[in-house]
Design a protein that fits this description.
Layout: H1 8-34, H2 50-67, H3 76-100, H4 112-122, H5 125-141, H6 153-156, H7 159-177, H8 179-220, E1 223-229, E2 234-238, H9 240-246, H10 263-273, H11 278-289, E3 296-301, E4 307-316, E5 322-331, H12 333-351, E6 355-360, E7 365-368, H13 370-375, H14 388-391, H15 396-410, E8 417-424, E9 430-441, E10 447-456, H16 458-472, H17 482-497, E11 504-511, H18 514-520, H19 523-540, E12 546-551, E13 554-559, H20 565-579, E14 583-585, E15 588-590, E16 594-601, H21 608-624, E17 630-632, H22 635-651, E18 660-669, E19 675-686, E20 690-692, H23 694-704, H24 707-728, E21 734-738, H25 749-759, E22 767-772, H26 773-778, H27 780-793, E23 796-802, H28 809-814, E24 819-822, H29 824-827, H30 834-849, E25 853-856, H31 862-870, E26 875-876, H32 887-895, E27 899-900, E28 906-908
Parallel strand pairs: 16-17, 19-21, 21-22, 22-23, 23-24, 24-25, 25-26
Antiparallel strand pairs: 1-2, 1-5, 3-4, 4-5, 6-7, 6-10, 8-9, 9-10, 11-13, 11-16, 12-13, 14-15, 18-19, 18-26, 19-20, 27-28
Length: 914
């Protein structure tokens, strides 16, 4: 079929297309000429700025306005649009282009080729060719722009424009036929373009995130990090920690994209801070020659006292090319100080000879130092690192205490762990250890680690035990002393009150006549006797009993196994029989008895002093019964003890209250029956206690140390009265005064007595000092020296109550005695008992043989007086002759005429007072 000629519409269509081509040609020419876009590693990455969007919107509005004009006017518009866009591109230069595509966007880096590629991706090849031709036509049409359109626009268009129009026409017709195909292809291209742009965008975001992550990681690191380019000597990256260490402003460093100051400048600043920069310079010189991956390290000492560790290494990319040089610096000042402290601690621990323990509570592992193992006799590799190695070796009696103390510290109950305990060594013996430790705790307060030391304190503990033993035991007999016995008795009383144990017996034992041995054959022999008696006591009682030496010859026993008072009394008798067995002392065989007081300890007793007080009272009751006796404490003994306390309290005030007085008993010559002397006897009349005899209160005065004051008071009053009688004419009398033997140990006694006598107007040879035989024997050594001093001053010494005590002629030989006074108990039986008479006769004859005077006491009958006169006894006194008289009656006796006996016989033919 023959094709028909084109319709007139085709001319209009072609003309319109040609004009559209002119519009796009001019537009593309302007964009390609002025946009100055450049390509950078992947294309578009940023959106248009606000200014750029405004310009494009303005161009689009211009284009829309052009398309709405009448067809006859549109041919001017394309040229105007293209010229406008070209002028914007040419004249606006970077400022307009930057508004369209911001400076930070990768679009600025697109070259002219991008515009061509962009058009190629949006258009088919023929359309692209038409646009290029139209572009050229648009440029060619520029000279034809004028104020009025030419009469024939088509005639003025160049051949290139006509060809472009025909091509566009042909392309348009072809485009109409394949519109759907082209539309699909264009859509795919657009999607690919959008996908590509999105991927590029995501890649850059990932890069930014990676850069930010690196910034955060290095910012929180304790290391100072620097990356620098050795070729340009620029710092590519530096974190804030590096600036803190070296002390400079971190800006503008801190970004991997912005170069910093010169690396050389930074290093010069660092070199000035070093004490010795030579090691650092040597390391840097080595790095310049060796660009391998080897890490170089050096330790730097700064002038401000800090210590740094410096690392440096070259960084290479995957291809092995130098990427840069990494420098890292760490402030290790605290670590170095900790290491130095640890070294000092280790040296101190080794010097202290201590074993160290480091316990990881979470891992349940313990590090025992070599010294710790050595202390127990083990080699360094012989024990496991478990807590059991230590705990299992603690003494069973100490283990619970150690664990309680340890767990109390781990729970936070104590500031530190400190405990003394015994540990078993490899040889099986136990050593005393002092463990110290401190737990490390986490934020929650729970202990996770504990470190400590262990010290061998065996020698110290042995010394302490020796000191404790010495403090609690008698050094002579090795028995418990008073302090230890009190503590033991107190503990048993507490158990008794709680009902944990039954009643028990406590004994107070005193050795009879111990002073005889101690003073006759010496203190060393007395000590031997005490040691022997102590050994017998320990062997005679069960192991559960407690035996103590309270002092001197006094012992105390606590017997737990007795079940009654009768059993306690039988146990006491067994002890007495055992102690009474003969003992060899210095080649002599001796036997001794003992007196024992017993207390049945019951719940009523609260303090050990109460028990011992009652036992002592029972012991004195036993002594009153005779040597070798035992007595159980009874309530009446307590009443006696209370009276003793009352007497003791009142006696100390008796002199001040003028409750004391003196009575006088005359001493008669047996041959002439005249008064040749007088004895001053002390009496005490208390308003509440009544009259008290010397036998009751003198022992108490001796016990409390009050007897010296009593003796001084009696001597002073007696001498004054004797001086008064002598002034009245009784010049032939001798004054006898009793003196306590315990007072003989008082320093300066002889001189003090002399002054007292002379102060009253007498001389010492007019005074006879009477001392009991028992008192002298109990203080023989000290008494002998004091008596010698008194005798040298002129005092006469009389041994009172001779025959009731030890009656040893050895004492008479050793002491400066002038007078023997026969005890009344011996004189009572001289007429009824031939043996007593024989002994009395022997004493009188022996005393005369030794040059001593003899005075018989307690002459109650005429037969006694006759017996004494027949045996040539020198003097006598007693109720048969005269009872003790008050001072006024004694004065009358001395002042008036002859005295008669109770039977009427004259005793004195004439008065002694003339």
């Amino acid at each position: 079929m023959r094709r028909s000629a084109p319709e007139p519409r085709f001319s209009r269509y072609a003309e319109e297309r040609l004009r559209i081509a002119l519009i796009w040609g001019v537009a593309i020419a302007g964009l390609m000429t002025g946009a100055r876009a450049r390509l950078l590693e992947g294309g578009l990455t940023h959106p248009l700025s606000v200014g750029g969007v405004a310009v494009l919107l303005a161009l689009m509005a211009l284009y829309i306005r052009i398309t709405r004009q009448p067809l006859s006017e549109r041919w001017r518009a394309p040229v105007t649009f293209g010229v406008a866009l070209t002028l914007i591109s040419l004249l606006g230069a970077r400022s307009v282009a930057d508004d369209i595509l911001p400076a930070g966007d990768s679009m600025l880096r697109l070259g002219p080729a991008l515009g061509l590629l962009w058009s190629a991706q949006l258009m088919l090849p023929w359309r692209l060719f038409g646009v290029v031709v139209a572009f050229g036509g648009g440029l060619a049409a520029l000279p034809f722009l004028g104020p009025t359109p030419p009469p024939s626009p088509l005639g003025t268009i160049t051949v290139a424009a006509l060809i472009g129009a025909l091509v566009v026409r042909w392309a348009a017709v072809r485009d109409v036929r394949s519109r759907e195909e082209a539309h699909n292809r264009e859509s795919n291209i657009q999607r690919d373009l959008v996908r590509t742009v999105r991927k590029l965008r995501e890649s850059e975001l990932k890069a930014r995130r990676s850069s930010a992550l690196i910034e955060k990681v290095t910012a929180g690191m304790p290391l100072g990090v620097v990356v620098h380019d050795p070729d340009s000597d620029e710092i590519v990256y530096s974190n804030g920690r590096c600036a803190e260490i070296w002390g400079y402003d971190p800006e503008p460093a801190g970004s991997t994209y912005t170069p910093s100051a010169s690396f050389q400048t930074t290093m010069e600043r660092a070199l000035g801070m070093m004490i010795d920069p030579q090691p650092f310079l040597e390391m840097q010189g080595g790095l310049r020659q060796d660009r391998s991956n080897t890490v170089s390290e050096v330790e730097l000492e700064l002038r401000d006292g800090r210590t740094l560790r410096y690392f440096s290494v070259f960084i290479h990319d995957e291809a092995g090319r130098d990427f840069g040089r990494l420098h890292a610096v760490e402030d290790i000042t605290s670590r170095k100080r900790a290491e130095e402290t640890e070294v000092r601690y280790g040296l101190a621990a080794r010097c202290a000879n201590d074993g160290l323990v480091d316990w990881d509570l979470r891992a349940r592992r313990v590090h025992y130092s070599d010294r710790w193992k050595e202390m127990l006799g083990y080699a360094p590799d012989e024990l496991d690192d478990t807590p059991r190695e230590a705990i299992s070796r603690i003494h069973p009696k100490d283990r619970d205490h150690v664990l309680r103390t340890l767990f109390a510290h781990l729970r936070g109950g104590t500031e530190r762990f400190e405990c003394e305990f015994r540990m078993r060594t490899r040889r099986g013996e136990y050593l005393w250890m002092l463990g110290r430790g401190l737990a490390l705790r986490g934020a929650d307060g729970r202990a996770y680690r504990m470190a400590g030391s262990q010290t061998d304190i065996t020698q110290r503990k042995l010394a302490e035990m020796r000191l404790r033993h010495d403090a609690e035991h008698d050094s002579l007999t090795a028995l418990a002393n008073r302090s230890r016995f009190h503590a033991e008795l107190s503990a048993r009383l507490a158990e008794l009150r709680r009902g944990e144990i039954p009643p028990f017996a406590v004994m107070f034992l005193d050795v009879d006549r111990f002073k005889v041995v101690n003073d006759s054959i010496g203190h060393a022999a007395g000590d031997e006797l005490l040691v022997s008696l102590a050994r017998r006591l320990r062997d005679a009682v069960p192991p559960s009993s407690e035996v103590a030496r309270l002092g001197g010859d006094e012992f105390a026993l606590l017997l737990r196994d007795v079940i009654s008072e009768e059993a306690a009394l039988e146990a006491a008798r067994n002890l007495q029989r055992r102690l009474a067995e003969p003992i060899q002392l210095r080649g002599q065989e001796m036997a001794f008895s003992s007196s024992i007081g017993i207390v049945w300890a019951e719940r009523r007793y609260r303090a050990p002093e109460d028990v011992l007080r009652d036992a002592d009272a029972a012991m004195y009751r036993a002594k009153e019964q005779g040597g070798g006796s035992a007595a159980i404490f009874r309530a009446e003994m307590h009443a006696s003890a209370l009276r003793t306390l009352e007497v003791q309290s009142a006696l100390q005030k008796a002199i001040d209250r003028d409750e004391l007085s003196i009575v006088w008993q005359p001493i008669y010559s047996c041959r002439r029956l005249e008064v040749i002397g007088v004895e001053a006897l002390l009496r005490w009349n208390n308003p509440r206690l009544g009259p008290l005899g010397p036998a009751e209160f003198i022992p108490i005065a001796e016990e409390i140390g009050y007897v010296d004051r009593l003796d001084a008071w009696v001597l002073s009053r007696a001498c004054s009265q004797m001086a008064a009688w002598r002034h009245e004419g009784a010049t032939g009398m001798q004054l006898s005064v009793n003196l306590s033997a315990r007072g003989l140990t008082t320093a300066g006694l002889a001189e003090r007595l002399r002054k007292t006598v002379e102060a009253a107007g007498l001389v010492p040879w007019l005074v006879t000092l009477e001392l009991t035989e028992t008192g002298l024997v109990e203080n023989l050594d000290s008494a002998g020296e004091a008596l010698q001093q008194l005798s040298q001053l002129g005092f006469h010494i009389a041994l009172d109550d001779f025959g009731t005590g030890y009656s040893s002629l050895n004492y008479i030989r050793r002491l400066p005695i002038d007078v023997l006074k026969i005890a009344g108990s011996l004189a009572d039986d001289v007429c009824r008992d031939p043996r007593s008479g024989a002994v009395t006769t022997l004493v009188i004859e022996t005393a005369h043989a030794l040059g001593l005077k003899v005075v018989s006491e307690r002459v109650e009958h005429e037969e006694q007086l006759a017996f004494l006169r027949e045996r040539s006894c020198d003097a006598a006194q007693g109720f048969h002759l005269s009872p003790p008289l008050p001072v006024d009656q004694m004065t009358e006796l001395l002042r008036h005429g002859p005295r008669r006996s109770p039977q009427g016989a004259p005793l004195v033919e004439q008065s002694s007072l003339r």
